[in-house]
Automatic annotation (TrEMBL):
Annotated Gene3D superfamilies: Gamma Fibrinogen, chain A, domain 1
One GO cellular component term: extracellular space
SMART domains to which the protein is assigned, alphabetical: FBG
Residue stretches making up the Fibrinogen C-terminal domain: 1-200
SUPFAM superfamilies tied to this protein: Fibrinogen C-terminal domain-like
Transmembrane residue ranges: none
Annotated InterPro entries: Fibrinogen-like_C (IPR036056), Fibrinogen_a/b/g_C_1 (IPR014716), Fibrinogen_a/b/g_C_dom (IPR002181), Fibrinogen_C-term_domain (IPR050373)
The protein, known as: Fibrinogen C-terminal domain-containing protein
């Protein structure tokens, strides 16, 4: 069932929450956001401060399958993301926050993007145990806290990094959750959400 979160939006109750979809016949739980920009969004990555903090230092196979709690921090999984986006064209919305300040970016096509995301466009997904980035002499995943991402050399956004909180700038800077084109380098985020919905609604 493609665009499931959009179908939930069409219901009278339109409530954000965890729903079960069947994109390839198997049950997959997703979080549907029904409040942002008219609703209908399927969240595929959510980062927020919680106890215990979810460890994003995972193997490539974990990034393929997905991990975390759909009601908290989670990664939907590369396989599920591919299944969802291979049948239709999707748009992407990224929500970022640092303390009380927040911003968002909107991309008309999930496979092309602007600002911090452009730097990563067209690159293979890397994880702590599978180095496929453009950096020579090391692993961007390792240097960036062990999280998986579409690293180039290495990143302009680090959505699977550690929470930096009030860490001073430059102190192990590559380890932390960042969206560099918003408030510059070393402005560590407190919250980040990546979500998609069908482009043709």
């Amino acid at each position: 069932m493609f665009g499931f979160s959009w179908k939930v939006k069409e219901r009278p109750e339109k409530i954000s929450g965890v729903y079960t979809i069947y994109p390839s016949g198997a049950a997959v739980q997703v979080y549907c956001d029904q409040t942002t920009d008219g609703g209908g969004w399927t969240v595929f990555l959510r980062r927020q401060k919680q106890e215990p903090q979810l460890n994003f230092r995972q193997t490539f196979s974990k990034y393929e399958e997905g991990f975390g709690s759909r009601s908290g921090e989670y990664w939907l999984g590369l396989k599920n993301l591919h299944i969802l986006t291979s049948q239709k064209q999707y748009e992407l919305r990224v929500l970022v926050a640092k303390g009380a300040e927040s911003a968002s970016s909107h991309y008309q096509k999930f496979h092309t993007a602007g600002d911090s995301f452009t730097y990563h466009s067209g690159h293979q997904f890397s994880a702590i145990d599978r180095d496929r980035d453009s950096a020579s002499g090391g692993s961007c995943s390792e240097w960036s806290g062990g999280g998986g991402w579409w690293y180039n050399f290495c990143y302009m956004t680090n959505p699977t990094g550690l929470f930096g909180g009030d860490k001073p700038a430059h102190e192990d800077s590559d380890l932390y959750l960042e969206w560099r084109n918003w408030q510059g380098y070393y402005a560590y985020l407190s919250k980040l959400t990546f979500m998609i919905r069908p482009k043709t609604l």
